[in-house]
What does this fold into?
Amino acid sequence: MRRRNAVVAATAAGVLALVAAGCGGGGNSSSSGVQGASHSLVQSGGKKGGTITVLSNGDVDHLDPGAAYYQFTYAITYVTQRPLLAYKPNSIQPTPDLAASMPTVSKDGKTVTVHIRHGIKFSPPVNREVTSADVKYAIERGFDAAVGNGYAGAYFGVIKGAPTKIGNTVPSISGIQTPNKYTIIFKLAKPSGIFVSALQEPLTAPVPAEYARKFDQGKSSSYGDHQVATGPYMVQNNAAGKITGYTPGRQIVLVRNPNWNPKTSWRPAYADKILFKEGFDPTVATKQILNGEADVNGDFPPPAAQLKSITSNSSQKGQLEFTPTPGSRFVALNTQKPPFNNKYVRMAVAYVLDRNSMRLTRGGAIDGDIATHFISPDFGSHGFNQAGGFGFNPFPSKNNSGDVAKAQAMLKKAGFKSGKYSGPQVTQVADNSPPGSNTAAVVANSLAKIGMKVKTISVQHSAMYTRFCGVPKNAPNICPNVGWIADFHEPQADLDANFNGKNILPANNVNWSQLNDPKINALMEKAKVELNSEKRWSEWGQIDKLITESAAAIPWIWEKSPTLYSTKVTHASELWNGGEPDVSFMSVK
Amino acid sequence: MSAVREEEQLHREGAADFVAIEIVGRTPWQLFWVRFRKDRVAFVALGFIVLLILVAILAGPITSVLGHPPNAQYPNKLDLFGTPTGPSSGFLFGVDQIGRDVFSRVLYGAQVSLEVALIATAVSVSIGVVLGMVAGYFRGWVDTLISRLIDVTLAFPILLLALGIASACSLGNGCVAGLVHPGLGTVIVAIVVINWTYIGRIIRGQVLSLREKEFIEAARAGGARSRTIIFREILPNLVAPIVVYSTLIIPQNILLEAALSYLGVGIQPPRASWGQMLADATSIYSTAWWYFAFPGGALLLTVLAFNLLGDGVRDALDPRTTT
It folds into this structure.
């Protein structure tokens, strides 16, 4: 689960998901009345030179490509590092980047072979050609606690010989083999439908062991402050390799990587310099982009009031682009204790929730489509269609504003003869700031319609996860402000962590409903090892339906994230990365 | 008419004048009322407060006549972007960020403000008066203990202390073994813990001088017990400072409640409180002026009214001091 845009994360969804898919067409989405410019195609024929300025509210999580796990950081990682695979703007289909061609998978699904390009060199001071051993070291160091990678176990734990736990040294993994300088072979313990997709994670970007090893010693790796690049840009550094272009919380300066050969890369890399300026108030930053002092927003969405004025201003409207995000926000009901251990009570909640009002708390239709199940529209044929697309809605209501009569019918089935809930009051733990706090207020109001009194405990968004919703022993009945973004467009990345009973953890749990349905668990394990992508997506589509019908969690929005460009630059938003700008495709006009 | 007789005449007229002025016996409270009535500002403030109390008591009936309960949502009153709409004929004060009627919520907010104002003030004054009298009357180690406790409490930044107490009691089932529940109870406890000290210190000072007066010595000589002296002899002489001080800390308490609710540790949603409404309004102030203007105006007027009333009461009880 990759972290979502800071401002968004601070308020609502949280974490994100994983999985991979290697394929796919691009299901762009759909609908919604109010819109800015639709997701545009990248303009070609940009002009070389100039500086692009990106504004952000917060900082990157880690500069180290082995530790980075945050949408905004990925906007920097992918233009400075070359993982085996990467995405072009507007595509959810990975493309070979460091790899020379798409990986080949053996028939039994247990051997994945990748050939890497010749002639790719590390930036100064390393300056030598990249070999397959550098990729092996990069992945191995992900299992060292000093690096602190967040997904190595989830995606690469399936490799033979991979540690089952993160340890205190860089392990040697027998299942990663490098028969020659340009070939890397992964031997898997069992087939994995998402392994190829996971090769687009920055963890596969090469790291030179002879140079990095000394920085990886000790409790916390300092390779991030000495990193070398393989992409078109690098974080500014000095002759010894020490990073000079990063002032935490202030700015990050990217300059051209002198050792990058444009012939080996599909990135046009028009601009000479990229400036990431941090610590901006979203309102101020939005104004600066509108008046041309900066070029694009990094980690925050422009505030709702400004979105409203921009979309209703015909000359500014075209500067705004909305990108669907691969995930959904939902209300998680605790299935392990009363009253929501009763399926019919949960279904009553699913019927009565006023999802229209909930969406209005985040800006209305401009913020996305009302979600009726979990796999989001941008997955398209990778699971969204298989789950019934926009047509699957087991708990319909007029205008999506809730159906009290149907909810009462469910309560009667649950044993409340009057159709009104008469059990003890339920508790929800919610954000203490808007928009999450407003969403929670709508939830409480909706439940009041069926007689369910809700006590709201308001805490900071992060505490909501770390102290309450993510700790089963402290979990309230309702977590109204949770959400998930998949790391890539494979439904496993969207559903497994959130709803597989095997993934319930005593802390940092993300199966917030604590759903542990043997039938669903078994279907998931089966779908994970399915190598035929069509079959796999269709199985996950069925799983999505089952989870939605169980009402363990009630999805309510498939979000779109707004990216605002100045009039001086061309647009390039990453469809795979929730609308982060791809600065290697943007050019100064 | 001789000059002498004229003088007599004058004397007689003077006497008649003197007789014409009736000597009326007035209790201190009558004197207070006479003076207070002349203070027009304070009188208007009192009128406003009476009106506010009526509104708070009748909030239920009023909103049900309007048909807009405080927690009902009217999504139609939000535009396509979820932005609330302003005052209109059905919604006098507009709607808030999730489409609730601001007018109804301001009325219900008055309930919270007044409840806190009256309960927290009454409790903190009671505690402060008792401890202040005990400290001032007994002196010695009792005085040292209570006075140092007051000093220590006053050494804390008020808002931070209140915030700490309220945060500790705002999660889960509250604090002090579940006796203090999040919400109104927490706010009152936080206010009382801080506010008893001010009145405690003032009362202690008054008692220190009162206890040396002859009538106290007489009572003591007559064999009266300490408790009798404190409550029967000293307390009645403290009524004026108690009344004055109470009216002056009411507005402080209302503001403290608003501040705590603003910071999210006071009144818990969905109950309406002015402070919480102001907090919600900060994120949309540029598009929804009515959402901070009406609760903010209500808070301003209420605090102002209590302050003016307090000033008036003080002037009327103690005309020697002027402001």
Remarks:
- Chain B has a mean pLDDT of 85.
- The interface with chain A takes residues 71-73, 75, 78-83, 97-99, 170-172, 182, 264, 268-270, 280, 283-284, 286-287 of chain B (CB under 8 Å).
- Residues 166 and 186 of chain B are 6 Å apart (CA to CA).
